[in-house]
Amino acid sequence: MKIIIIGAVAAGTSAAAKARRNNEDAEIVVYEKDPYISYSGCGMPYYLGGKIASVEELIPRNPSFFKNKYNVDILTGHEVLSINTDAKTVMVKVGMSGEVFVDHYDKLIIATGAEAIYPKIAGIENPHVFTLRNIVDVKNIAAFIELRKPKHAVIIGTGFIGLEVCENLVKQGIFVTLVEQLPQVTPGLDDDMAKYVQTHILHHEVDVITGNGIAGICSDHVTLTSGEAIVADLVILATGVRPQVKLAEKAGVFLGNTGAIEVNQQMQTNIPGIYACGDCIEHYHLITGKSIYRPLGSTANKTGRIAGDCATGGDLEFRGILGTGIFKIFDLVVAQTGFTEREAKAQGYDVIVCHNIKPDKPEYMGGKEMIIKAVADKMTGRLLGVQIIGEEGVDKRIDVFVTAITFKAKVEDLFHLDLAYAPPFSTTKDPVMYTGMILDNAIQKKRPLITANDLNMLMKSEEKYTLIDVRIPKQYEKGHIPNAVNMPLEQLRQISDSLDKETLTITYCNKGVSGNAAQNILLNKGFKKVYNISGGYKHYSKIIK
């Protein structure tokens, strides 16, 4: 049996390695049009910032490695031009010589990956405009910085690649302006969480322009759609990627709703004997089962392994993804999994949302605050998604939430997790457990929450409400929500009888705990409808300006 694999980065090489483990007798050939294989694309921004000394560190394996260890032939500089599914052949062009030849396969695995999106912008072909998709790209950017010594960079797009590049250019002494067409940075987050990220970026003397696009690029500046000119002697396009599917589509391979290759759980396409994996395929969401496109190196490795297994008679199946992601911008870590509030509502869920502000470990052990936004289905109590922003401990918590969502946990289950505890690592009630407690209180114990955004809308309406700040007077005087009356928690039991129990009442403290205590007091005293502000005044003051 002969297996041909098109593409030799994460998915293609994973497929080759797994296929060889299953079948020692198969002939396995991998064609890769670029000069580099199996590289760490996610590490490229850190090479630009000097954290990685040599680009070779990003390329741990070469064709000789695969030949020696797996007896797999990887031919770089070989571009597959076409696939003949009837004859089971591929036409291959050798880059250096231009020679074209035909090769035969019994099984074919398509791992053509994704390509950078080039927006239709005048001047995009200028020599100081770059994308960051592969090793050639990063070497070109590094060489440009070394030779031209740019002082001002404009990065178009504020996804995780754009922000990682931003940090690393700043470390090189380059002044950076971020331009985002959408009204917020980090489009994958909800707008309230994105504001934390934007504030942090601004503190590092980076200019941030949102709600604006690029109309044109000149040699020394870019022009915004608003007409403003921004100095730029280096421009990085970080506007996303799209699947490279032209070769597959031309051969009759079906594409899915997302525009990527449609595969089943065993990575099979509609054509017998042809599999696909990596950034060129669409995935399905673990919660809804619907198709999505979320290219990521970890998923590419996973789907490559499945394709290699199934092409050699195995029975591995892809179980779907949650769209989990994590990145660092300066000293801030941003992570997300599952649905955002915006996405959950778009899917038709009646959601409950909480903002939990807690340190990753006790303050006496140097704990740093993180904010956890969790989204749950109000009807079933199922956890739907989580976003976390903080300096430390974010990666640990997001992975716990990923596991919980994967196994369809309800919010009440989070409190019962037997998580590891010692002061150097966590608080006695871990922030994960606390998040479950808050949401369970809201859903099961009838202790409802109101978000800062929803409160802002209420304040603009004509509905009557009472807003109670239960902090001490000194905190209230330093800053409070408009129209709030100060009733310190210690006095609330005595003075609550003066309030109308029929009027909608909203309590808040600094982060939410004392606000919840006040909510309990009022509900137990017969108040009909009492809400606690999610995340308290600290969260409200961050996102409502």
Topology:
Elements: E1 2-6, H1 10-22, E2 27-32, H2 44-48, H3 63-70, E3 73-76, E4 78-84, E5 89-94, E6 100-104, E7 107-110, E8 114-116, E9 129-131, H4 135-148, E10 152-156, H5 160-171, E11 175-180, H6 191-203, E12 207-210, E13 214-217, E14 221-224, E15 229-231, E16 234-237, E17 241-243, H7 246-250, E18 274-276, E19 283-284, E20 291-292, H8 297-310, E21 325-329, E22 332-338, H9 341-346, E23 351-359, E24 369-377, E25 383-390, H10 394-406, H11 411-415, H12 431-443, E26 449-450, H13 452-460, E27 465-469, H14 473-478, E28 485-486, H15 489-495, E29 504-508, H16 513-524, E30 530-533, H17 536-543
Parallel strand pairs: 1-2, 1-7, 2-3, 7-18, 9-16, 10-11, 10-16, 11-12, 26-30, 27-28, 27-29, 29-30
Antiparallel strand pairs: 4-5, 5-6, 8-17, 13-14, 14-15, 19-20, 21-22, 22-25, 23-24, 24-25
Helix pairs in contact: 1-8
